[in-house]
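Minutes, project check-in

Agenda point 3 was the complex the collaborators sent over. CS summarized: two entities, 666 residues total, and the question is how they sit relative to each other. Sequences were read into the notes so everyone works from the same version.
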Amino acid sequence: MKLHEYQSKFRFVEFGIPIPRGKVATTAQEAFEFAKEIGGPVVIKAQVLVGGRGKAGGVKLARTPDQAQRFAGEILGMNIKGLTVKKVLVDPAADIATEIYLGITTDRAARRTVVMASAAGGVDIEEVAATTPERIVRCHVDPFLGLRDYQARDIASGIGLPRETWKQFIDIAKALYQCYLNSDASLAEINPLVVLRSGELLAVDGKMVLDDNALFRHPDLVEMRDTDEEAPAEMQARQAGLSYIELDGEIGCMVNGAGLAMTTMDMIKLFGGQPANFLDIGGGAQAEKVATALRIILMDHNVKAVLVNIFGGITRCDEVARGILAALQEVKPHVPMVARLVGTNEAEGRSILAEANLLTASTLAEAAQTVVRAARGEL
Amino acid sequence: MSILVDKNTRLIVQNITGREGSFHTEQMIEYGTKVVGGVTPGKGGEWVGQVPVFDTVKAAVEATEANCCVIFVPARFAPDAIYEAADAGVPLIVTITEGIPVMDMIKVRAFLDQRGVRLVGPNCPGLLTPGEAKVGIIPGHIAIPGNVGIVSRSGTLTYEVLNALRLRGIGCSTCVGIGGDPINGTSFIDCLQLFEEDPATEKVVLIGEIGGTDEEKAAHFVAEHVTKPVVAFIAGRTAPPGKRMGHAGAIVEGGTGTAEEKIKALEAVGVRVADHPEQIPDLIANL
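CS then shared the predicted structure for the full assembly.
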C-alpha cells in the first residue's frame, strides 16, 4: 500500500525526522491561505501516488500567495500518469545547499533490510544505480540488532557528508529505520534529504510503501489508504478478497492460483489476444466467489470474452462447474464465456458446462485459442 | 529415492484441528504419509482421526520422534509456530501459510539459518514424493513416481505441470513448492543442489515467475554446478511493472525481475525454456 508524500512526511516527523512545516490544500483558495500563513516562497506539490510529478509539471515554486493560488489551481485536477490530482502539499521553500538520497527497503537477495544513501540526491535513484552505482552506499541491517550507530556513521562517511552534519544525519537515519520498522514498510525514502545553507538537515520529500501482508497489524495506517486513486474494480476485488489487476486487453480471465493466472494471461497473448486483467480467485471456486469475480471482470467494457481456467486438485470440477453455472445465471454476461476445468471429476464438470452451452476446452493451449477466437467473434 | 521427504518422514501438523489442518491431515494420511502427531495449543489430548494432538511441538516431538513439521497456522501466528518447531529440534519445517509479513520472515529466516534448520515456504503447497509421502496440499493423484525433479514458486501452475507430465507417462522424484514470497526458506539453488545429489533424479523442471533474482542466480548455479538437464517455464511475460501479481514476491521493481531477463539468463546456460507449461513434457521427453 502506497502512502502520499504528505502522509509519509507526517509519519516521519512522528519519529523525529525534520520536515518542512507544510499543509495539504484541496482548493486553490486554501493554497492561497496557507501560503500567506507560511509567508515567503512556497512549493506547490501534487499529491498523487506516482513518480515523476515534477517532470509532469506537478511541482511548482510560488513566490507569492497569489502565485500559490494560481499554481494550485493549475495543478489540482491535473492528470498525471492517469491519476487526477485532488490534493496539493504547500511546503515552505527550503534554502538548499546540497541534496542527499536516503532510503530503506528490502534487499531480497540478501534477505535483509538495506539502508541506502547517496550524495546524488534529488534525482531518480534507479538512474544513479544504473549509471554511477559507486555513488550509492549500502548497509544491511541485522534484523535482531537493528541499525547500529557505527553503521549510520559509515554511511555518512561513505557519501562524503561534511562532519558537521554527521550527528543530524545519524539521528535521521536511525529515525527513518525506526519509522520503517514500526510501519512494516517495504520502502521508506527521503529524496532529497537536504542540507540547508544554515547547516540543518531537512526531509524535503518523502515516500513510503507498506507491506500489504502486515496491514492487519496497522489499522491506523490502513485508514490512510487513498481509495480515490484505486480503480473501482480493483477496490471491489480487494474488498472481496480477490487478487485483481486491470490491464489493457479484451480477454478477461479468472483463474485459481497466481502463477497459473499469470500463465493464462501469457498464453492468451501467445495465441494472439490481449489479456484484460489478472484475477486469482484462490482456492475453492464457489458460486458466490465466481459471480463476484465475473462481475468485476465485466466492469471493464473492453472485455469481449472471458476465460475461466480452474485446476481442480482437491476442489472437484463438477462442483466448480455448478458454481460457474450458478454465477452465470446471476450475472448474465453478454460476452462469450470459455471454461477450462482440469482435475478431479473433470469429464463430469465439462459435460455440466456443455449442457449450458458454454464453450469448453481441455488443455491450456486449447483454452487460450478458443477464447481468443471467441473474442474475435469467430465462434 | 527423492529429496527432503519420503516414507521415512515422521510428520507433525501444526494447527491440526483447524479447517485446513484437519482436512489436509486426512489427505496426507490417505496418501501414505506418516503423520505421527499434531499440535494445537489448548487441544492436547484430543484426536484428529487416529492422530494424537499435543499442546506443544516439544511434547509432540518427544512423544513421536517426529522429524518434520507442516504449518497451517494463520499468518499472524505462523512465525511463532516456526520458531517453536525450530526450538523443538525439528530439522525440516514446511509452511503453507500465505500472508506472513516480510519483516517477520527476515527474522525467521535469520533465526533458522543460525540453527541449521531448513524451512520450505512460506506461501507454498509443500512437497510431494510420489508413491511415498506428501507434506502439504499438493494433490497426490496428479503425479506418478519417476525421475524428474520439480521445483516451483507456484501452486496450481505446478499441478498443471505434474499432471501434464503424468499424462505423458513421465513421473517425478520429488516436487518442491518453494512458494511465492519474496523472503523464503528454500531457493531454486537449494533444490537444484539436492536434485543434483539425488541418484533417483535425472532431469529437473524449474517453474519460476516474475520478481526477484532467484531464477537468474539459479541459471548461474546450473552453469557451474549442475550436470543434469534442466527445463524451465517462467510465468509473467505479460505482467505490468510495479504491480504485485498475487504472490507477494511476484513484482517487477526498478526494472529488475522481468520474465524476459529470467528466460534469457536460463537459456544462456543451456536451460530449455518452454513457451507454455504443456510444452514441458515434450522438452523432457526430447532430452
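Noted in discussion: Chain B touches chain A through 59 residues (CB under 8 Å).
Follow-up: revisit at the next meeting once the mutant set is ready.
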